[in-house]
Amino acid sequence: MSLASMVLFSLIVFLAAIVQGISGFAFIMIVLIIFPYLFGYTEAIALASFIYLFVLYSNSFLYRKHIEWKFVPLWVVTFILADSIGVIVLRLLGDSPIWYILMGIIFVLIAFYLLFVQRKIRITPNTKNLILFATLCGGINGFFAVGGPIMATYFLTATPKKETYLGTTQILGVFTITIDVIMRALSGMYTVDSIKIGILGIVIAIFGLFIAKKLVSKMNEAHLHRIVCIVIFLSGIKMLFF
Predict the structure, then answer these.
(1) CA distances from residue 149 to 27, 95, 96 in whole angstroms, order as listed
(2) pLDDT of 165-217, one tens digit each?
(3) Whole-prediction pTM value?
(4) Cα–Cα distance measured from residue 115 to residue 54, given in angstroms and rounded to the nearest whole number
(5) Which residues contact 210 (CB under 8 A, 6 or more apart)?
(6) Residues 6+ apart with CB under 8 A from 106
(7) How many domains are contained in the chain?
């Protein structure tokens, strides 16, 4: 990596870690604004998942007392099946410009939902919807590594307060992303160089999470939520048309 690429990598990981530490999701979505242009699509997905795993471990520890364990078994099993299919398909098809277009479409749709639809359409937190959202989350995560918003969509309704939402989604992320990283490793998506870059990303992310912890009691999360959605939307438009 050139010096400019290294600086860009460090900045996007740091920013993504701060947003993750405050909102509970969006790390992978933010780093994937930049990562595909630095590493190529397949390596970018694998590297983002690797760093994200350690971010999730840290956050789940912070909210460990608020975890709703009753959601974990069914969600994890469903996610693993769907995620495995997504990883296998991606591995078979390989890099292609079409993935940037599809990822752009997903970014735009996610941003639209979070900005305009979330408060109008409430998801009933029953078993059927849990399986549906876990399947969507796993499939999208395996192919695009952006399953977090799907998980957030369900658990914002299924959990009674923010701390429970954060604790539950982060521990689910630990289980599911651990499996995801293992699947990508077995598929040969990691190299010595990518692991070295990943370790650097983890160190940077830890600093970002520390800053997030300091800011969480002072920052207006509603404003941050809107900013993140706008960034996701603009990045999707860029991938679609530029």
Answers:
(1) 10, 24, 24
(2) 888 989 998 988 888 788 889 988 899 999 999 999 999 999 998 898 788 77
(3) 0.77
(4) 28
(5) none
(6) 140, 144, 146, 236
(7) 1
